[in-house]
Structure formats: structure tokens, C-alpha cells
Structure to design on (147 residues):
């Protein structure tokens, strides 16, 4: 090589060399999107575990209460039948009245249970996804106005 040799200018031939910045930006955006989705999934897992823990505690308390209440309820029904038998002097009427009251109470409790609304699941994750959607809409509208 001589001291004053000139090199030919390099001709860009590949897409990666032409759009190296664009490809890098796309890779970085994809990496950040994957990281963000991973964060949202982790948040959802944490909320789901907390929700399951709360619900399992509630179920355990309901089971314990149900055992005690059913025992008390059976004794109360027996006492009501005996008391009504003494007053009405008929076992058939006494048992019929107790069954009717139980049926009405069951219908009222069933209607109340059907009207109860369940607690929302993963409220923070849902809110995070709504925020992401709003940000994406804003970003897309800005890109459309630039074009």
C-alpha cells in the first residue's frame, strides 16, 4: 500500500446495514414490550395468589360456621316442632309449619346469594392494562399525525 492510497467507498448492500438504527430500535422496542408483558404477568400472578389466599380463608371460615350453624339449626327445628306440637296438639301441623318457614328462609337466602356481586379479580392488573391501552392509543395517534 502506498502512503496516499484511497479506498473505494463501501457500498451498503444488506438491510441490516441500511437500517441498522431501525433494526436496533425494533429489537429494543420488542425487548421492552416482552419485559413489560412479563411484568404485567408477574403482577397478575401476585394478585391471583393473594386472591386465592383470601378466598381460601373465607371458605375455611364458612365451613366452620356452617358446621356450628347446622347443629344449632337442627336443634332449633326440633325445639320448634316440640313447642308447636304442644301448642297445636298435632305433630303433622308442627312439622309442616317448620318446613314451610325453612323453605321461605331458604328462598330468601338463595335470592340474596344470587344478588351478591363477587369481588373483582386482579383489579390492579386490569387498571395497568387499561393504562397501557391508553398510552398505545396516544402513541398511535401521534404517529398518524406525524405521517
Amino acid at each position: 500500500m502506498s502512503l496516499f492510497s484511497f479506498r473505494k467507498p463501501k457500498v451498503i448492500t444488506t438491510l441490516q446495514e441500511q437500517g441498522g438504527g431501525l433494526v436496533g430500535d425494533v429489537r429494543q422496542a420488542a425487548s421492552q414490550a416482552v419485559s413489560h408483558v412479563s411484568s404485567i404477568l408477574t403482577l397478575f400472578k401476585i394478585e391471583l395468589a393473594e386472591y386465592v389466599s383470601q378466598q381460601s380463608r373465607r371458605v375455611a371460615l364458612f365451613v366452620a360456621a356452617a358446621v356450628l350453624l347446622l347443629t344449632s339449626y337442627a336443634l332449633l327445628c326440633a325445639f320448634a316442632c316440640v313447642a308447636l306440637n304442644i301448642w297445636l296438639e298435632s305433630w303433622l301441623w308442627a312439622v309442616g309449619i317448620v318446613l314451610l318457614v325453612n323453605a321461605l328462609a331458604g328462598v330468601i337466602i338463595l335470592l340474596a346469594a344470587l344478588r351478591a356481586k363477587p369481588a373483582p379479580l386482579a383489579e390492579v392488573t386490569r387498571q395497568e392494562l387499561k393504562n397501557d391501552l391508553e398510552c398505545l392509543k396516544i402513541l398511535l395517534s401521534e404517529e398518524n399525525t406525524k405521517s
Summary: Residues 32-146 form one domain. The first helix runs from residue 15 to 18.
